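Appendix B. One record, verbatim.
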Amino acid sequence: MNTIIYCRVSTDKKTQETSLVRQEKEMIQLAQMHGMNVVDIIKEQASGYEIERDGVFQMLEHFANRKAECLIIQDETRLGRGNTKIALFHQLKKLHVSVYTAIHNGELELSESDSMVLQIVGIVEEYQRKIHNIKIKRGMNKAIEEGYNPVENLSNRNKATGRQRTDFPIEEVVRLRENKLTFEEITRTLNGLGYNVSKATVNRRYREFHNA
Protein backbone atom coordinates (compact mmCIF):
# COMPACT_ATOMS: atom_id res chain seq x y z
CA MET A 1 0.00 0.00 0.00
CA ASN A 2 1.36 3.43 -0.95
CA THR A 3 1.24 5.94 1.87
CA ILE A 4 1.93 9.58 2.67
CA ILE A 5 3.51 10.58 5.97
CA TYR A 6 2.35 13.92 7.34
CA CYS A 7 4.09 15.62 10.27
CA ARG A 8 3.12 18.99 11.76
CA VAL A 9 4.08 21.26 14.63
CA SER A 10 2.41 24.54 15.49
CA THR A 11 5.43 26.84 15.85
CA ASP A 12 8.88 27.40 14.38
CA LYS A 13 10.75 27.01 17.69
CA LYS A 14 13.86 24.84 17.71
CA THR A 15 12.27 22.50 20.22
CA GLN A 16 9.42 21.88 17.79
CA GLU A 17 11.88 21.03 15.01
CA THR A 18 13.00 18.15 17.21
CA SER A 19 9.36 17.07 17.44
CA LEU A 20 9.14 16.98 13.64
CA VAL A 21 12.15 14.70 13.46
CA ARG A 22 10.67 12.43 16.12
CA GLN A 23 7.30 12.30 14.33
CA GLU A 24 8.97 11.38 11.04
CA LYS A 25 10.93 8.57 12.68
CA GLU A 26 7.80 7.14 14.36
CA MET A 27 5.79 7.33 11.12
CA ILE A 28 8.47 5.56 9.09
CA GLN A 29 8.60 2.78 11.69
CA LEU A 30 4.79 2.44 11.54
CA ALA A 31 4.88 2.25 7.74
CA GLN A 32 7.55 -0.45 7.87
CA MET A 33 5.57 -2.38 10.47
CA HIS A 34 2.57 -2.55 8.13
CA GLY A 35 4.62 -3.16 4.99
CA MET A 36 3.70 0.17 3.39
CA ASN A 37 5.57 2.01 0.65
CA VAL A 38 6.21 5.64 1.65
CA VAL A 39 5.59 7.88 -1.39
CA ASP A 40 6.24 11.23 0.30
CA ILE A 41 7.03 12.69 3.72
CA ILE A 42 5.42 16.08 4.31
CA LYS A 43 6.58 18.23 7.22
CA GLU A 44 5.34 21.70 8.08
CA GLN A 45 5.10 24.22 10.89
CA ALA A 46 1.63 25.75 11.03
CA SER A 47 -1.43 26.04 13.23
CA GLY A 48 -3.78 23.08 13.23
CA TYR A 49 -6.73 25.47 13.02
CA GLU A 50 -5.44 26.84 9.70
CA ILE A 51 -6.62 24.91 6.64
CA GLU A 52 -4.60 26.91 4.10
CA ARG A 53 -1.37 24.96 4.46
CA ASP A 54 0.96 24.04 1.61
CA GLY A 55 1.55 20.60 3.08
CA VAL A 56 -2.16 19.85 3.31
CA PHE A 57 -2.76 20.71 -0.35
CA GLN A 58 0.31 18.75 -1.40
CA MET A 59 -1.05 15.76 0.51
CA LEU A 60 -4.56 16.05 -0.98
CA GLU A 61 -3.09 16.37 -4.48
CA HIS A 62 -1.23 13.08 -4.03
CA PHE A 63 -4.45 11.33 -3.02
CA ALA A 64 -6.51 12.95 -5.79
CA ASN A 65 -3.93 11.73 -8.33
CA ARG A 66 -4.07 8.23 -6.83
CA LYS A 67 -0.38 8.25 -5.94
CA ALA A 68 -1.24 6.90 -2.49
CA GLU A 69 -4.23 5.51 -0.66
CA CYS A 70 -3.11 5.80 2.97
CA LEU A 71 -2.09 8.60 5.32
CA ILE A 72 0.09 8.16 8.39
CA ILE A 73 0.03 10.79 11.16
CA GLN A 74 1.16 10.80 14.77
CA ASP A 75 -2.36 11.46 16.01
CA GLU A 76 -5.50 13.14 14.67
CA THR A 77 -4.50 16.58 16.01
CA ARG A 78 -1.44 16.59 13.74
CA LEU A 79 -3.79 16.72 10.75
CA GLY A 80 -5.84 19.56 12.21
CA ARG A 81 -7.91 20.89 15.06
CA GLY A 82 -11.53 21.99 15.41
CA ASN A 83 -13.52 22.44 12.22
CA THR A 84 -10.36 22.10 10.13
CA LYS A 85 -9.85 18.57 11.42
CA ILE A 86 -13.43 17.57 10.56
CA ALA A 87 -13.21 19.14 7.09
CA LEU A 88 -9.97 17.31 6.28
CA PHE A 89 -11.19 13.95 7.57
CA HIS A 90 -14.33 14.40 5.48
CA GLN A 91 -12.23 15.10 2.39
CA LEU A 92 -10.02 12.07 3.05
CA LYS A 93 -13.11 9.90 3.43
CA LYS A 94 -14.42 11.08 0.05
CA LEU A 95 -11.06 10.18 -1.49
CA HIS A 96 -11.25 6.70 0.14
CA VAL A 97 -8.02 7.26 2.08
CA SER A 98 -7.16 5.06 5.07
CA VAL A 99 -5.64 6.89 8.04
CA TYR A 100 -3.09 5.26 10.36
CA THR A 101 -1.76 6.83 13.54
CA ALA A 102 1.17 6.07 15.81
CA ILE A 103 -0.98 6.57 18.89
CA HIS A 104 -3.25 3.71 17.75
CA ASN A 105 -0.33 1.76 16.29
CA GLY A 106 -2.62 1.13 13.34
CA GLU A 107 -5.76 2.46 11.69
CA LEU A 108 -7.32 5.56 13.24
CA GLU A 109 -10.28 5.15 15.57
CA LEU A 110 -12.30 8.37 15.59
CA SER A 111 -14.15 9.41 18.71
CA GLU A 112 -17.90 8.88 18.78
CA SER A 113 -18.53 12.63 18.59
CA ASP A 114 -16.23 13.10 15.57
CA SER A 115 -17.79 10.13 13.79
CA MET A 116 -21.26 11.58 14.39
CA VAL A 117 -20.24 14.99 13.01
CA LEU A 118 -18.72 13.40 9.90
CA GLN A 119 -21.88 11.39 9.35
CA ILE A 120 -24.01 14.54 9.60
CA VAL A 121 -21.70 16.41 7.20
CA GLY A 122 -21.96 13.56 4.70
CA ILE A 123 -25.76 13.50 4.90
CA VAL A 124 -26.01 17.28 4.45
CA GLU A 125 -23.64 17.21 1.47
CA GLU A 126 -25.63 14.39 -0.16
CA TYR A 127 -28.88 16.31 0.19
CA GLN A 128 -27.22 19.43 -1.21
CA ARG A 129 -26.25 17.41 -4.30
CA LYS A 130 -29.76 16.01 -4.61
CA ILE A 131 -31.35 19.46 -4.32
CA HIS A 132 -28.98 20.89 -6.92
CA ASN A 133 -29.63 17.99 -9.33
CA ILE A 134 -33.39 18.33 -8.85
CA LYS A 135 -33.19 22.06 -9.63
CA ILE A 136 -31.30 21.31 -12.85
CA LYS A 137 -33.76 18.56 -13.83
CA ARG A 138 -36.77 20.78 -13.12
CA GLY A 139 -35.24 23.58 -15.17
CA MET A 140 -34.53 21.23 -18.07
CA ASN A 141 -38.05 19.74 -17.93
CA LYS A 142 -39.50 23.25 -18.05
CA ALA A 143 -37.35 24.09 -21.07
CA ILE A 144 -38.52 20.92 -22.82
CA GLU A 145 -42.16 21.80 -22.09
CA GLU A 146 -41.52 25.17 -23.73
CA GLY A 147 -40.21 23.53 -26.89
CA TYR A 148 -36.53 22.82 -26.19
CA ASN A 149 -35.34 19.56 -27.79
CA PRO A 150 -32.12 18.01 -26.37
CA VAL A 151 -31.75 15.85 -29.51
CA GLU A 152 -31.03 18.99 -31.52
CA ASN A 153 -27.88 19.51 -29.48
CA LEU A 154 -26.07 16.94 -31.60
CA SER A 155 -24.23 18.84 -34.32
CA ASN A 156 -21.23 18.14 -36.53
CA ARG A 157 -18.63 20.60 -35.25
CA ASN A 158 -15.58 18.70 -36.45
CA LYS A 159 -14.57 18.65 -40.08
CA ALA A 160 -13.83 14.91 -40.03
CA THR A 161 -16.54 13.11 -42.03
CA GLY A 162 -19.07 11.21 -39.98
CA ARG A 163 -17.76 12.48 -36.65
CA GLN A 164 -20.10 14.39 -34.37
CA ARG A 165 -19.46 16.45 -31.28
CA THR A 166 -21.97 16.11 -28.48
CA ASP A 167 -23.18 19.47 -27.21
CA PHE A 168 -24.21 19.89 -23.60
CA PRO A 169 -24.39 22.81 -21.12
CA ILE A 170 -20.75 23.15 -20.01
CA GLU A 171 -21.80 25.94 -17.62
CA GLU A 172 -23.86 23.41 -15.69
CA VAL A 173 -20.89 21.05 -15.57
CA VAL A 174 -18.75 23.83 -14.08
CA ARG A 175 -21.48 24.65 -11.56
CA LEU A 176 -21.79 21.00 -10.53
CA ARG A 177 -18.02 20.69 -10.12
CA GLU A 178 -18.07 23.77 -7.89
CA ASN A 179 -20.62 21.90 -5.77
CA LYS A 180 -18.12 19.03 -5.39
CA LEU A 181 -19.88 16.51 -7.68
CA THR A 182 -17.61 13.95 -9.32
CA PHE A 183 -17.43 13.62 -13.11
CA GLU A 184 -19.27 10.32 -12.80
CA GLU A 185 -22.13 12.01 -10.91
CA ILE A 186 -22.22 14.87 -13.43
CA THR A 187 -22.32 12.40 -16.34
CA ARG A 188 -25.25 10.53 -14.79
CA THR A 189 -27.06 13.84 -14.33
CA LEU A 190 -26.51 14.82 -17.97
CA ASN A 191 -27.58 11.38 -19.17
CA GLY A 192 -30.77 11.70 -17.15
CA LEU A 193 -31.44 15.02 -18.87
CA GLY A 194 -31.16 13.46 -22.31
CA TYR A 195 -27.50 14.12 -23.10
CA ASN A 196 -25.84 10.96 -24.41
CA VAL A 197 -22.35 11.79 -23.21
CA SER A 198 -19.53 9.80 -21.58
CA LYS A 199 -17.58 10.64 -18.44
CA ALA A 200 -14.39 10.98 -20.50
CA THR A 201 -16.06 13.55 -22.76
CA VAL A 202 -17.38 15.55 -19.81
CA ASN A 203 -13.92 15.53 -18.22
CA ARG A 204 -12.20 16.57 -21.46
CA ARG A 205 -14.62 19.38 -22.26
CA TYR A 206 -14.40 20.66 -18.68
CA ARG A 207 -10.60 20.92 -19.03
CA GLU A 208 -10.97 22.56 -22.47
CA PHE A 209 -13.34 25.13 -20.96
CA HIS A 210 -10.87 26.04 -18.20
CA ASN A 211 -7.91 26.15 -20.60
CA ALA A 212 -9.74 28.34 -23.12
